[in-house]
Structures are given as structure tokens and as C-alpha cells.
Design goal:
- There is one protein chain.
- It contains 4 helices and no strands.
- By secondary structure, the chain is mostly helical.
- It has one domain.
- Helix content is 74%, strand content 0%.
Length: 89
């Protein structure tokens, strides 16, 4: 029932006011977690994680990605886990 509101706040690709908040918060959280464990390239991976999550969510809301919510959640989670596991050395 609120899809129009969400689409106005989160533009395709992850932009918009909600996209900015999501990206900022997710990047900060990922950066903190990577630094805690001494993972390589914390800034790079934190940005990739935040952009992937916000972008996929936004594109799904705008109908650019097809799939039911559970499937999209499962797939985006796998993407995020794999970003963290990608060897960068």
C-alpha cells in the first residue's frame, strides 16, 4: 500500500533521500565491521556493499528486477556475503 511512497524516496539505482540514508548507514556499518577484523580494503568493500544493497532494493521497487520479496532478499544477501568474501590481495 505504500509502494509509491517508497519509490519516491528510493529512486532507481539507489538514489533519493532514502537511498542516501541507506548507503551512508550501511557503508558505516560495513566499514566498522571490516576494520574490527582487519579485513582488506575496508573502504572499497563497504562502499560496494552499501551500493549493492541500496541499488538492488531500489531497482526491485521500481520493477527493474523481477522476483518475490523472499527471493530477492535471499539473493541480495548472497551477493553481500560474497562481496565480503572476495579475495582482494
Amino acid at each position: 500500500p505504500h509502494a509509491g511512497l517508497y519509490r519516491a524516496l528510493l529512486r532507481p539505482g539507489g538514489g533519493g533521500p532514502l537511498g542516501l540514508v541507506l548507503h551512508t548507514d550501511l557503508r558505516a556499518r560495513s566499514l566498522h565491521e571490516r576494520r574490527l577484523v582487519g579485513a582488506p580494503e575496508p573502504e572499497l568493500v563497504a562502499s560496494a556493499v552499501a551500493a549493492t544493497f541500496a541499488g538492488v532494493l531500489a531497482d526491485w521497487l521500481h520493477g527493474l528486477i523481477e522476483g518475490d520479496p523472499d527471493r530477492i532478499a535471499h539473493l541480495v544477501w548472497r551477493l553481500l556475503v560474497n562481496l565480503h568474501r572476495t579475495p582482494l590481495g
